[in-house]
Specification:
- InterPro entries: 2Fe-2S-bd (IPR002888), 2Fe-2S-bd_dom_sf (IPR036884), 2Fe-2S_ferredoxin-like_sf (IPR036010), 2Fe-2S_ferredoxin-type (IPR001041), 2Fe2S_fd_BS (IPR006058), Beta-grasp_dom_sf (IPR012675), Diverse_Oxidoreductases (IPR051452).
- Keywords: 2Fe-2S, Iron, Iron-sulfur, Metal-binding, Oxidoreductase.
- This is Isoquinoline 1-oxidoreductase alpha subunit.
- One of its GO terms (molecular function) is metal ion binding.
- The chain has 153 residues and is an alpha+beta fold.
- The chain folds into 2 domains: 74 residues, Ubiquitin-like (UB roll); 75 residues, DNA polymerase, domain 1 (Orthogonal Bundle), CATH 1.10.150.
- The protein has a 5-stranded mixed sheet, sandwiched between helices.
- The protein starts with a strand and ends with a helix.
Amino acid sequence: MVNFTLNGEAVSVDVADDTPLLWVLRENLELTGTKFGCGIAQCGACTVHLEGQPTRSCVLPVAAVKGKNITTIEGLMKTAPGKALETAWVAEQVAQCGYCQSGQLMTAAGVLKNAKGPLSREEVLDQMSGNLCRCGTYNHIAAAVVNAQKAIA
């Protein structure tokens, strides 16, 4: 049995300790916003927050989150930063196919949280370089993150 906090609520799952968190979220807890992309932590589609920091859930064994706080895209979108990012995403017309978007948003929230001052387009692109978008909307993503930061301020 693995106990942790998910989007502010205590949860318990009875799975093997080495089960990737991604599959626990999708299959056991039926939160399908977190996507499977590559399975080797290279694309970012599976990004969630572990104790507030972006983390790849496809390679994270569920045992590693015992007693910890996990936030998924479903939880992020209920927060002020999540809502600011969503508004900026729509305004900048970021989404194309949409598959990478939950991971992009989770990473963007981490970038905003860790920012020491106003972000430039180049800083955003650099800090989000580990998240892949097969549609190539990187410039739109960077603009949305910069705009979301301005809206939050």
